[in-house]
Amino acid sequence: MHDPVFWTLRITQTLASIAMAVLSADFVVGVFHWIEDAYLREDCPLLGELIAKPNILHHYRPRHFLKHSWMDSCWDLWVVAALFVLGAWALESLTPAVWVFACLVGNANQIHKWAHRSRRENGPWINLLQDLRILQSSRHHAIHHTDPKSTHYCVITEHLNPVLEQLRFWTHLECWLWRTFRIRRRSDTSNRRHGITPEWVLRAQHT
After folding, report:
1. pLDDT band at 200, cuts 50/70/90?
2. Entry pTM
3. What's the domain range around 190?
4. What one-character-per-residue DSSP string does the chain give?
5. What is the total count of domains within the chain?
6. pLDDT tens-digit profile of 11-49?
């Protein structure tokens, strides 16, 4: 039990599994973000009002969601995280990596918020985590909000987005969905010369 090799391997294995949990959480959140941006429409029953409209407005006014509470911003991803934890519990697989994954997924929109706040608003600790590239910085996330707003969907770290963009992962996935199911990406009218701004967005911009 006191074998240093054993403990070194055990610690290395734990750290590696936690690192994979971080990247997995970032990827899962990126997939949800991509679905919201590319395919979820404002007229979709229930989800249109709860998720699609706030997401569309976010592309027009990126800092608008900063006024929302933690629960208002994170509830949907906490549902996903809770289901994942319940599944792991049912399989008797509640490991540290599972908890790290669930906590990051559940709080992804809070991390997203930090990427939209100024350094003064964030304070020294969050700034440090962003400077160390442990959390995504404002500079990195700004790429997603640059027209055509169709890249860099992962919002937790800065490590997955460059890899996925190099692979053209989202582009290939969207092409496959079109060829296979004839599902077309939603037009994003927040892009310049890309359509008329919806009336409800104009009203929301004055609230």
Report:
1. confident
2. 0.92
3. 4-204
4. ---HHHHHHHHHHHHHHHHHHHHHHHHHHHHHHHHHHHT--TTSTTHIIIIIHHHHHHHHSTTGGGGS-HHHHHHHHHHHHHHHHHHHHHTT---HHHHHHHHHHHTHHHHHHHTTS-HHHH-HHHHHHHHTTSS--HHHHTTTTSTT--S----S-SSHHHHHHHTTHHHHHHHHHHHHH-PPPPP-TTSTTSSPPPHHHHHHTT-
5. 1
6. 899 899 999 999 999 999 999 999 999 999 999 999 999
